[in-house]
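Hi R.,

Here's the chain you asked about this morning:
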Amino acid sequence: MTANAIKFFAVALFFAAIFACGARIKLPGRLVSHQRRLLSFSAGISVAYVFVHLLPEVEVARAVLVRSTMDWSVQLPAYIVSVTALAGFMFFYGVECLIARSRTGSNRIDDAAGSGGPDYRLHIGIFAIYAAMVSYLRINAIEQGEAPVLLFALAMGTHFLTIDHGLRREYPASYPRNGHFVLAGAPIIGWALGVAGEVPKLLTILLLALLSGAIIAISLIEELPRENEGRFWAFLAGGVLYAALLVPLA
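And here is the predicted structure, written out as C-alpha cells:
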C-alpha cells in the first residue's frame, strides 16, 4: 500500500468518525448558543473549497477531456463538464425538495418508531453514495504536499458534520439508530474502491464535476434552511478565512 493510500485512509477514518460520533461532539458551553453560526461558518468553508480548489480542478478536467477525445470520431465538447456540474447541483436540490414534500404524517410516524420511511432510506442512500464518491475522487486526485490534504479534510469534515447535524434533526429516531453507521462506512468504501483501481478517465472527470455541483447544493441547502436560520456573516467569515488559507497553496 502506498504512502498516499495510507494518508487518505486516515482521512477516510476521520470522515467515518464524524458520522459515527457526530452526536457526541459537544460544543463548549459558551458556543452552544452560537451553534447556527458555526454551521453557517462550516457551510462557508465548503463553498470556498469548491470555488477556490474544486472548480479550478474541474477546469483542468475540461482540458483533459478535450485532449483525451481529440482522436475520437466525435469529439466531446468541453461544456459537458460544466453541464454535469449543473446536473449535480440540480439533482441534489431536487432530491431535497422531493424529500421535504414527502415528509408526511406516515413518514414521521415511521421515523418515531425507528424504522424510517421511503424518504429516509432515499436520503441515507444518496448521502452514502455521495460520501463514498468524495473519498474515491480524492484518493485518485493529484495532490501535492500535506497542507492541501489537511485543508481538504477540514473542508469536507465540517461539511459532513453539517450533513450529520441536518439528518439528526430530520430523523431524530431513525438516523441515530442505524443511518449514521451507514454513512460512517461510506468513506471507507470509497477509499477501498479508490485503492482497488480507477474507472475510465472520462467517468472520473464527470464524477468530479458532479461532485462540485453537489457540494454547492448541499452547502447552500444547509445554509439557506427553513425559517431564516442562516447566518450570513458567519457564512462569509468561513468562506473568506478558508479561501485565505487555500489561495496561497493553489
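One quick note: The longest helix spans residues 35-68.

Cheers,
M.
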